Amino acid sequence: MLHKQNLVRSITTLLVILATLGGIYALWLRYQVAPVTRDGKVRADMVPIAADVSGLVTEVRVHDNQVVKKGDVLFTIDQPRYRLALEQAEANVASQKVALAQAIREDRRNRAMPEVIATEVIEQGRARVETLRASIGQAVAARDLAQFNLERTLVRAPVGGTASNMTLQPGVYLTAGKPAFALVYDASLRVEGYFEETKLPDIRVGDRASVYLMGIADEVEGHVQSIAGGVEDRERAGADGQLANVNPSFTWVRLAQRIPVRIAIDKIPRNVRMIPGQTVTVIVHPRKDGREIHRSLPW
Fold first, then answer.
1. How buried is residue 243: exposed, middle or buried, by Cβ count under 10 Å (0-12/13-18/19+)?
2. Virtual torsion, Cα 143, 145, 150, 154, nearest 10 deg
3. Which label site among 19, 103, 257, 296 has the fewest CB atoms less than 10 Å from its CB?
4. Contacts of 280 (CB under 8 A, 6+ apart)
5. What confidence tens digit (pLDDT) does each residue in 149-166 have?
């Protein structure tokens, strides 16, 4: 009887040890080998919205977090001032044309009377005609620029997206090129998964990927679009063209570098909303393409 009890205890202990080892191995595969990362972010390109001309903001047509389409007017810059500049440029063109017409008439009259008009005066008349023609070209260019500036007083959305950090109000003076707010380019919405370098051998461009937002169980479907071509080497400093400055210290704890992997989104569940900056878990499902991976211990 005692022998039987000892045998049962031994078998139970062995099964517990095997189960523990199996669990440790499964965890090692999950977190060290399998192409899974909880370090992922929803990302999108940000387009700074800036005026091409300087002036007072006279009208704002969007509000914070509003969805806009490409070409929608976002705000207006001091149109009366630029309209007056266009009228002045048009008047200058008309004035130059009148002066040119008068110079052409005088030149024709002078050339019709070479016996009376000195040659020097005739040449001066011709030069004046050419100068006025060049002046008209400059005046037309100035008028076109004034027209262009007037059109640019209407600041339009360069892409479709969502207005973000929008605090612009009428009366604010904007200088050309200074961003007024940002536009989230919705078409560029994607996921960036930061995978340990030990997991990259299992990842190929085109592999199917599952994305899970933090706290949401619904799967967002996607695929691997690209893998980063490189990451910064923190152990080396120095600019290009200089000698390498390598950190002489070495730590015994070697952590795997994290490599960005871009995941293109294929399908979003109807009840899920993805916002740039959200934290996600990314699971890549390697294709059965006969790839062979020869692994070694990380040390």
1. exposed
2. 160
3. 296
4. 40, 41, 42, 191, 193, 211, 212, 213, 214, 220
5. 999 999 999 999 999 888
CATH classification of 34-43+187-231+255-290 is 3.40.50.300, yes or no?
A: no
Contact present, 183 and 156 (Cβ < 8 Å): no
**Domain regions of the chain by residue span:** 34-43+187-231+255-290, 52-175
Terminus-to-terminus CA distance in the chain, angstroms?
49
Residues with Cβ within 8 Å of 82's Cβ and at least 6 positions away in sequence, in order, are 53, 55, 146, 149, 150, 153
pTM over 0.85: no
Q: What percent of the chain has pLDDT over 90?
A: 46
Question: What's the rounded Cα separation, in Å, for the pair 47 and 77?
Answer: 19
For the ranges 7-16, 103-112, 120-129, 134-143, the one whose mean pLDDT is highest? 134-143
Alpha helices in the chain (DSSP H): 2-28, 79-112, 119-151
pLDDT at 82: 92
Placement of tokens 């209407």 in the chain: 154
pLDDT of residue 105: 79
Tell me what the mean pLDDT of segment 259-264 comes to: 94
Task: Give the pLDDT mean for 126-133.
Answer: 80
Cβ contact 36:284 at 8 Å: yes
CA distance 7 to 3: 6
Q: Is the pLDDT higher at 294 or at 47? A: 47
Where are the extended beta strands (E) located within 178-242?
179-185, 190-196, 208-213, 220-227, 236-237
Q: Which two tokens stand for residue 5?
A: 């009890």
